[in-house]
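Hi both,

Apologies for the delay on this - the queue was longer than expected. I finally got the pyridoxal-5'-phosphate-bound model through. Below you'll find the protein sequence and the ligand SMILES exactly as submitted, and right after that the structure tokens for the full complex including the ligand.
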Amino acid sequence: MTTAFLAHIRAELDQTRAAGLFKDERVIVTPQGALVRTSDGREVINLCANNYLGLSSHPRVIEAAHEALRTHGYGMSSVRFICGTQDLHKRLESRIAEFVGCEDAILYAAAFDANGGLFEPLLGEQDAIVSDELNHASIIDGIRLCKAKRFRYKHNDMADLERCLEEAKAAGARFTLVFTDGVFSMDGTIAQLDRIRALADRFGALVGVDECHASGFVGRTGRGTPEHRGVFGKIDIITGTFGKALGGASGGFTAAKREVVELLRQRSRPYLFSNTLMPAIAGASLAVLDLLSESTALRDKLEDNTRYFRQAIQDAGFEIKPGEHAIVPIMVYDAVKAQQLAKRLLELGVYVVGFFYPVVPQGQARIRTQLSAAHDRAQLERAVAAFAQAGRELGLVK
Ligand SMILES: *Cc1c(COP(=O)(O)O)cnc(C)c1O
């Protein structure tokens, strides 16, 4: 490696550090759960995992993964269309499709790939994609790879979405696809899918939703944002992950009409040119869907925990982003204060992370907490008490 190149890389790193944007990774030495132990031996309450339903270490999920490992081996060493398709993959595709209210589904190594490989095979330069400005990075990248005209509407703003639909129509778009996160991860905002569906219908447009922060727990039976907004079965394209609430290992999917999925199998590049999902993940994900179809107990407990925590943290004097999702952003506004608060909370036994610019807008620094069905009430009470203490010490609350 040339010294000039290495010097350039070092300068980039130094700049990142100087800007306060360098991301350090904390090392956990236990399974993911309500409590985790970090490498310095501290046991802490975990309030920053996407482990919404506590399934990351659920005995039934672990057992199903073991079982699939025994019956179907460790890896497939192949993409799907050569020799990487097992009965487990086919069953998971049909089960997840049914779960989210679509005809069929296709698996990917990650939801990032599902979104990355979604747009380019389905839409061309005669078409239009209308996208919420705060959509996930993988959606933005996927849209970049597609030749369709792009229209971006102000976050969650239905009047601006209508403006984009008008503009797409005026531009002569053949097909128009409106695409949004079901739940936006920084604010916990739940997309207004009922209104989006109605607007799209007026313009003859398609609707697609990324359900990564929703599948398994949003909606009365956990079927996601469409269920929550009363449009279950009426969304054209749904992407999602097995790497959050649905077990938390990895893997993604796209669900849609049979023909749409069929074309993605033929043309979607992350599907065609990347290894198949590990059999153990397919087997465990099937167990997750069984578990969630039998009972809503886990999503009900999460809802209960969320309601408790949202109220208790406000009673402790903190301001939160209003809403009902298990993502509870605790507003600090000042980036330095947010980092100090996260650091002090860790000392007090609560693991949280501060988010600040450019992840959230300037002056909107926050601690993003995430509830889990794995938390018990005593743990949440301890977490709130720690927030109150740290908040008082830093002069954030009285
Ligand atoms: C987490 C997330 C992804 C990526 O999911 P992976 O399966 O981890 O790649 C995509 N979209 C949204 C909205 C997410 O929150």
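Main takeaway for now: The pocket of pyridoxal-5'-phosphate is lined by residues 110-112, 115, 136, 138, 181, 185, 210, 212-213, 241, 243, 252 (CB under 6 Å).

I'll put the files on the shared drive as well.

H.
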